Amino acid sequence: MIKNLKSQCGNYTIQCLKADGSVRWSEDFSNMVVDQGLQHELDVVFKGATASSTWYFGLLNASPTIAAGLTLSTLSEFTGYTGSRKEFTSVRTLNSLSNTASKATFEITQASSVIGGVFLTNALSGTTGVLFSAATFPTADGNRSAEVGDTLTIGYTLSSANQV
């Protein structure tokens, strides 16, 4: 018997550049699409709920716990950067969305920053809105450091594909 299941996964590519343009660190890792994100998809596709046309990246504080029930109101956001959350400007190909041609950029303004990961939401700011996905860095403690003047670039690819 062949099972035709839909699988969805996202992958983040994040690079931290020092003020002089050299690479401080680089990571490539997958995320968890949290319950709220999955429910939003189902509601939009099958129940006629209003779709969110604009999505934003945010950064997580040190040592976050990523779980299916995570929401914007329960996560701990790192805000030591210029401006607000950064827009996910994506292009769709056959079965994926990606912003690799237009990566989000965070300019770090907080000295000795410890960043625990990244998230994707439909809220430009605040703690209300849909949290779609979240991820921690794949380091032993889940954290990465950054300094004033560093720039984080975030690429994200969200894929849906049939699996047999």
Task: Tell me about this structure.
This protein has 164 residues and is mainly β. It has one domain (13-155). The protein has one helix spanning 35-47; strands at 5-17, 23-30, 32-33, 56-61, 77-78, 86-87, 91-93, 96-98, 104-107, 113-121, 131-136, 144-146, 151-163. The strands form two sheets. Strands 3, 4, 5, 6, 10, 11 and 12 form a seven-stranded antiparallel β-sheet that branches. The longest helix has 13 residues, at 35-47. The radius of gyration is 16 Å and the shape is globular. It starts with a strand and ends with a strand.
Q: What is Rg? A: 16 Å
Bulk shape: globular
Number of domains: 1
Distance between the termini: 10 Å
Write the layout of secondary structure elements.
Elements (H helix, E strand, L loop, with lengths): L4 E13 L5 E8 L1 E2 L1 H13 L8 E6 L15 E2 L7 E2 L3 E3 L2 E3 L5 E4 L5 E9 L9 E6 L7 E3 L4 E13 L1
Task: Supply the key terms.
164 residues; mainly beta; seven-stranded antiparallel beta sheet; 13 strands; globular; disordered N terminus
Summarize the structure.
Helix content is 8%, strand content 45%.
